[in-house]
Design a protein that fits this description.
heterodimer; A: 109 residues; mainly beta; six-stranded mixed β-sheet; 11 strands; 53% strand; B: 114 residues; seven-stranded mixed β-sheet; 0% helix; 48% strand
Chain lengths: 109, 114
């Protein structure tokens, strides 16, 4: 079983739609949680950190449930430019990042 | 300022050849990480340096893989006797200190072993 599991998709949505991605992690010792975005043939870039209280950055909302070991990302009012792969990431003991396989989002006009 | 740079961006190697991949981290970043990303997968951890010390090499898939960072800045990942399963994108990331801080990724080196 992989340490971080995500639905690979693809998620195909029209512009303006709301889309949610989910992720589960297996190691309860995980300390930090992130969503990264990766465009085709580019490097991953940090989208947002995820906090237990939940956090929002514009159209993006991230939630963490430590008891269920579950992380989510909600994107509201999807734009064409949101098309990318979204990687769920956990960090243990302040060292290596553990990545999920990624969820592919395609937003169409 | 300058981000993480990697060279070469693309490398084609014949099976059995040795390759060396270079990473220039962001100036002043203490921590440096190497990841391997196979097609359709997320990046997977290979090894981690804090300054010149290699603190974790648990992700290196075999003893054909070797990494160094002798002066605590530039790092080289070397793969000896390459095999087809080594074909992947090799990503380098740096952070101010440890992984709890944001890791900034370089563009990667796409290695194809024929």
């Amino acid at each position: 079983r992989k340490e971080v599991e995500q639905d690979p998709g693809p998620f195909n949505v029209p512009e303006g739609a709301t889309v949610a991605f989910n992720c589960t992690y297996s190691n309860s010792a995980s300390q930090s949680f992130f969503w990264y975005r990766q465009d085709c043939r580019k490097e991953p870039k940090l989208l947002m950190s995820v906090y237990s209280s939940g956090n929002e950055d514009g159209r993006f909302t991230a939630q963490l449930n430590r008891a269920s070991q579950y992380i989510s990302l909600l994107i509201r009012d999807s734009k064409l430019s949101d098309s990318a792969t979204y990687l769920c990431v956990v960090n243990q003991a302040g060292t290596a990042l553990i990545f999920g396989k990624g969820t592919t989002l395609s937003v169409s006009s | 300022g300058a981000g993480v740079s990697q060279s070469p961006r693309y490398k084609v190697a014949k099976r059995g050849q040795d390759v060396a991949l270079r990473c220039d981290p962001i100036s002043g970043h203490v921590s440096l990480f190497w990841y391997q990303q196979a097609l359709g997968q997320g990046p997977e951890f290979l090894t981690y340096f804090q300054n010149e010390a290699q603190l974790d090499k648990s992700g290196l898939p075999s003893d054909r893989f070797f990494a160094e960072r002798p002066e605590g800045s530039v790092s080289t990942l070397k793969i000896q006797r390459t095999q087809q399963e080594d074909s992947a994108v090799y990503l380098c990331a740096s952070s101010l200190s440890g992984g709890s801080y944001e890791q900034y990724f370089g563009p990667g080196t796409r290695l194809t072993v024929t």
